[in-house]
Amino acid sequence: MSSPSERLNAEQASLFARLALGHVAREYPNKLDHVIDGPEDVKGPRELHPIFFGSFDWHSCVHGYWTLATVLRRFPDIPEAPAIRALFDEAFTSDKVGAETAYLARPSARGFERPYGWGWLLKLQAELLGHDAPWAATHQPLANAFAERFLDFLPLAAYPIRTGVHSSTAFALALASDYARAARDEPLLALFTETARGWYLADADAQAWEPSGDDFLSPTLVTAECLRRVLPADEFGVWLADYLPHIAHRRPASLFIPAVVSDRTDGKIAHLDGLNLSRAWCWRELAAVLSPGEARHAAAEAAARHLAASLPHVAGDYMGEHWLASFALLALTAAE
To answer: Which domain, by its residues, includes 92?
Structure first.
């Protein structure tokens, strides 16, 4: 279903590593998610977040570390590997993890990075668990804190958030479910499954009124990807046939047409490269579970078109460069 160029190779892994190494420790420019309760709270990114202070914002730094951990595990002999290991040894210490965890105890930090950063932090921990290194054990208290946040928040969340940006609940659950499986946290996975069922199981005949001008996720496809990760395969197949019944006819047409990115120096417009890459990720995952036939071919074709539209643009301007490699990596490693 895909050509070799559409799968992660050592050259791409090396490029993504260089990009991430160039921004995870770059403190400025920085867009903080920080509530100031008093003058004592006026601090810089590195003081507030001794690990995740770079990459323009906290969540991008988290998934920059995920990018580094992922390419290191898959290609441990790339030239950047020693620098990645040295960075991780320096970053993942008990004191620094403790400081990141303590930040969450501030009453005004209750909504910090909810839900996007929560999902990515747990996705990072899932990847660290796959390494023969002390990083995951040291980082576990922070992962525990974010798992607890999900446990506390999801029972209160009567409604999903159906957006194509950071507030997407489907994207957060999709990422966090990978951690629940890797950590064998059955209660957490059960909560994710129960919540996703309640939010999305009645969805049918999606119209896909998208994209919006600053989307980096497809609300339609990421909902499907969320349920694919938590439902039994047979049940998901039945649901998908009702939710997107016209894949074989390439409808809704909007899901099959890559977004046009008119200005990659504009942080919001540059989101649309992320949309193309995340659609490629979702389409590739869906193609792998569709039965052979025209629907599967259409999904695979859509994945390839979206990947081709934005993979060449993961580097070039910092507005995209500080995060796009992570989404390219999701697409290039999907359905393996």
So the answer is: 4-332
